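Re: Re: ligand-bound prediction request (bumping)

Still looking for help on this. To restate: I need the protein modeled with S-adenosylmethionine bound, output as structure tokens. Inputs repeated here so nobody has to scroll up.
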Amino acid sequence: MKEIGDNEIHLMITSPPYPMIKMWDDIFKSAIPEVKVLEQQMEEETDKSKRENYVSKIYSLFHKYLENVWKETYRVLVDGGIACINIGDATRKINGIFRLFPNHSKIIEICEKIGFITLPYILWKKPTNKPNAFLGSGFLPTNGYITLDVEYVLIFRKNGPRKFPPKDQLRYASKFTKKERDVWFSQTWNIRGEKQNHSEFIRRTAAFPEEIPRRLIRMFSIIGDTVLDPFLGTGTTAKMAMELQRNFLGYEIDEKLKPIIEKRLDINQMTLLKEDEIEINFLKRN
Ligand SMILES: C[S@@+](CC[C@H](N)C(=O)[O-])C[C@H]1O[C@@H](n2cnc3c(N)ncnc32)[C@H](O)[C@@H]1O
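Reply:
Sorry for the wait, this slipped through. Here it is.
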């Protein structure tokens, strides 16, 4: 994120491609050529236990790719700035064995190494209407698997709490109500996924519901702050930041999403902001 200077961002909110979830395999594989080589070697390996080493190497490489972004986030955040990462764990059968890839704990481990302070996180409970998701033999013990029906919103801070001048007007103008605080600062959030109202294309982008960044922005930033989303997708965080009078910076690698982002942000009808205050940069894949 070389376009952003050190200590310029007050809040980062994002949902990256999830390691070991099939829909994101291509993104990781095209960014990390080593993965294809490892997959090839794994296929040629006849010893099942040796093949396990390749599984863990590939999983680590996926996280190494995301680690670059977490490191950059740490650099661009102000002291006391917050990073919120929405991530789900993954289940997958590889090398003939069904298992869990606990993405949330891997990210916590990596972010702590970078220097972030880990804060209590949110469990986003999605209503599940898939009673048949049970993977096991009917009602017989012992080989059933738990259905994943939460995602995580991990929360990290750069150094100690942010400092404000006494009676800071913008901070006071940004306050939440008691009712909001009681719901938002509890650990479980029951929020519907964003599937119903969108086209097939948007569904495939794995957009999170607007309520997620809306709450996080109100909880962890004040009016006039700058919010960053390094994996913009359809621009949900951007839309909420603008609605809540925060500045916004974002990155998205997939050019096909550009018209969707522009439409969601109403860029052509923008009257309050001058045109040159809005800039969408698309990264070129090397
Ligand atoms: C889970 S989606 C984000 C969804 C978003 N929160 C929303 O509400 O629409 C992850 C996004 O990251 C993008 N992406 C993956 N690698 C990237 C990279 N290196 N730089 C920028 N964007 C990237 C993908 O194209 C995808 O749109």
